[in-house]
Structure formats: structure tokens, C-alpha cells
Amino acid sequence: MTNDDSIVFIVDDDIRIREALGELLASHGIAVCAFASAGAYVDAAKPKRPACLILDIELPDINGLDLQKQIADGDHPPIVFITGHGDIPSTVRAIKRGAVDFLTKPFSEAALMQAVHAAVAQDRKAQAERTGLDVLRQRYLGLTPREREVLPLVISGLLNKQAAAELGISEVTLQMHRRKVMHKMAAASLADLVRIAEKLQIPVTHSRRTGE
User: Fold this and answer.
1) Share of the chain above pLDDT 90, in %
2) Which of 35, 121, 160, 205 has the most CB atoms within 10 Å of its CB?
3) Is the pLDDT score of 27 beyond 50?
4) Same domain, yes or no, for 22 and 83?
5) DSSP 3-state assignment of 45?
6) Which residues form the domain of 79?
7) What is the CATH number of the domain that holds 192?
8) Is the pTM of this model over 0.70?
9) Which of 91, 110, 132 is the last residue of a domain?
10) Residue 39 is part of a domain; what is its CATH number?
11) Last residue of a domain, one of 132, 151, 183
């Protein structure tokens, strides 16, 4: 399997491991960028490509599990841990925090490549979802202030006349704004608009007049 657009980051203080993993991954057509420490990895500029982070547990500057916790909220790829001293508590911690796999040295080529492919696929999906969300945000920013008032009323399930009453406008004007919202958000239906609003975490507005 060859993934020309993917990249694997390796963080291991043993140059022999870095070189061996680099050669193995290169033989599978996967680009590699290796680091001798966690700090070097964190400070490096990284390409926006589907990726995987192969991370050693024992590092000279910071424990691999601590690094996992440190970068959990950042834009970092899924992690495959490797270690020469695996234990059940460490494995459980790593997996609970989202690690794709936890491999104890020496591990097989098949086990490593299976974990790498799974991590890259996971990151590819996550990046696609982030890109899609960015597109939706840009569409939302293209709405006028009034259209942003109309949207939560529409997705709440209110009738046009109820939503219009909430805003103090005519039903015809409300319908006009509703059509523009649907068009600008590229929503094919009301259900589609509701799903878009959920992704953008737009709260539903219920009618104060009807008590709904």
C-alpha cells in the first residue's frame, strides 16, 4: 500500500530505531520525518498531510505518555506508541487517551504497518471533517445579521408565522430570509440545515410567545 500524500513522524532517541523505521516506512512509499526528542517534534513545522506519530515512551526530555497528554488539544496526528518496557497500566492510559496502538519492541513489520495505516486513515478522516467544518463556518459568516437571527428560529421547527412574530417582521419577509439562509448554507432541506447547525453548534431558539 502506498500513500504518497501521507507522512509519519517518528520520535525516538535511539538513532538505530529511527533509521530502521524510516527505511521500513520508505519501502512502503510513506514519507518520514524523524526526531530525537519530544521537544524537537513539538517545535518543528509540520505539513498539513494525513499523518501518524510513532512515539517512544522513554524519551530524554519528556515521557511519551506525558507528551500525549500535552498535545491532546492540539492539531497533532494519531499516535502509535512503541516501547521496550511495556506494561498494562501504560497501555491502558495510552489507549484511553486515543492512541491507535501500543507496540512492545521487538514488534513485527505487519503489526507496525497495520497500526500506521489505521492512524493515517483516522487522521485523513479527521482532516476532511475539519476542512468541511471550516467551509460551513465560512458560509455562516456570509449570512447577514438578520439571517443569523432567522436560522436558529427556522431549525427550532417554528412555523414561519411564529418565527416572523419573534422577529417582528412579516411572514413574507421571514420566508425571503429563510430562502437566503438555505441557499447560502447550501442546505438541500430543513433536515440538512438542522444537521449543519448541529455541526456549527448553533443553539435552537424556541418561541417565547408560544412557550415552546
Assistant:
1) 73
2) 35
3) yes
4) yes
5) coil
6) 7-132
7) 1.10.10.10
8) yes
9) 132
10) 3.40.50.2300
11) 132
Long-range CB contacts (< 8 A, 24+ apart) of 108-115? 109/24, 112/21, 112/24, 112/54, 112/80, 112/82, 113/1, 113/24, 113/28, 115/52, 115/80
Write out pLDDT tens, residues 99-133: 999 998 889 999 999 999 999 999 999 999 989 99
Query: Strand, helix or coil at 159?
Result: coil
Q: Which residue in this structure is represented by grid cell 437566503?
A: 180
Tell me how crowded residue 90 is: count the other CB atoms within 10 A of its CB. Answer: 17
The answer on 174 and 91 residing in a single domain is: no
Q: Has residue 209 been placed in a domain?
A: no
- Separation CA 138–CA 142 (nearest Å): 6
Residue 4 has pLDDT above 70, yes or no: no
What is the model's pLDDT at position 48? 85
Q: How many CA atoms lie within 13 A of 70 on its CB side?
A: 10
181 pLDDT tier (thresholds 50, 70, 90):
very high
- Cα–Cα distance list, 5 to 50, 82, 133 (Å): 7, 24, 21
Total number of domains constituting the chain? 2
Residues 6+ apart with CB under 8 A from 38: 11, 59, 61, 62, 64, 67
Nearest to 132 by CA among 52, 92, 186: 186
Question: What is the chain's length?
Answer: 212
